[in-house]
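Example record

The entry below shows one chain as it appears in the dataset: sequence first, then structure tokens.
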Amino acid sequence: MVEPSDALVSVCYGDKLERLHRITIRPDPIEGARFTPDGRYAFVASRDGWISKIDLWNLTLVAEVRAGKSMRDFAISSDGTFLAVTDMQDRTLVLFDADLQLRKLHAIRSKDGKTSAVVSAIYDAAPRRSFVAVLEDVPELWEISHDPLAEDVPVGTIHDFRYKEGAFEG
């Protein structure tokens, strides 16, 4: 349970909601922790851009990283290996691995590159092994794969993507 007014996370015994331990986190957390599938780790984000990783088995804060200046939303992949974090001020989407190591930084710009945009929400699309980003300032929806075996995405006009004709993004 995240306690926004006190910048604390309370780890509670599930059946009785009895508090087992409290962990201090950054002030002004975004509501709702995100959990790994095995339930061992929880990720908590603050509005000023910090991500905290909490080990629920050992009741300790194990890692923190600053992902931006004004966080809007974040999501964890269904397999628990990646986090996607959105930042309103920098207009970026940042991908981290589960150890909070930076994997990729995406500047959010319209397809034509003329307009920067804010990601209003980010979701995990488990069957596709990707994140879906909903953009606020342009009529676009982004899909960002976190599948290491995903093929490159064709860009622009191409004749046949199977023959890798044209431009591709990795």
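Notes for this example: The chain is about 0% helix and 50% strand. The two ends are 38 Å apart (CA to CA).
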